[in-house]
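Exercise: predict the structure of this protein bound to zinc ion.
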Amino acid sequence: MRIKAFIAACMALCLSACVTTNEVTGRSQFITIPASQDEELGLQALNEVKKSNGNVRTSGRDVERVRRIGERIVRVSDKPDLNWEFIVIDEPVLNAWALPGGKVAVYSKMIDNLTDEELAAVLGHEAAHAILRHGAEQVSRAQAQQLAIVGLGAVVGATTENEKNAQLAVALGSMAAQGFVALPHSRNMELEADHVGTIYMARAGYNPRAAAQLWRKMARLKEGGGDQPTFLSTHPSDDKRIARIEGRMPEYLAIYGNR
Ligand SMILES: [Zn+2]
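Solution:
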């Protein structure tokens, strides 16, 4: 009984210590990783992807296009000073992802099918995921679930802070190598990234109407293609997110118009 109470106390302590208020959204987030470690975690995970995937491109026409649009967006975002890096994965897949610390990847099928403004909507969305620390939040949730399952073992087995973080980086890297499919963002995180991402694209001078247009096009491509649309399958229904974006369009257009 005493041991159980001890574990409960440890977990309560951790939970309260790890709840932070996001400075952009004002939402409370449960995150066990300090923001100061986002860069190291993301970079290590990105290196893992580069090592394990032979289709990663860091130069060439597509990379230049993604970088040009991406940099224009992050410059007016809430975190222009992250070490932003944009890569292309040359695979016929409709997908994109972001790692902690601002490491963003877009797959070539996405690039080939989108206009600059639609691509800006994708990059705004992914930049928002990194800025809002959704990856770190997902990892923390998974960790907490594991802690709840493993219970005493995890508490007793807890190693030093450094060892714990090293283990975390390896886990994150292998998840990223799989396109993060093992750990999809929650529906709310997706809607949050849509909202903040559309604000960023509007600030950068891209017409925010392209955000709704992007999801209509994605729905069409999804119907037509036989591939695995991971970017879509882990996201809320297209109708719902288009309705949300359209509903706030006056707000986005005001930002676009008032630059
Ligand atoms: Zn997303």
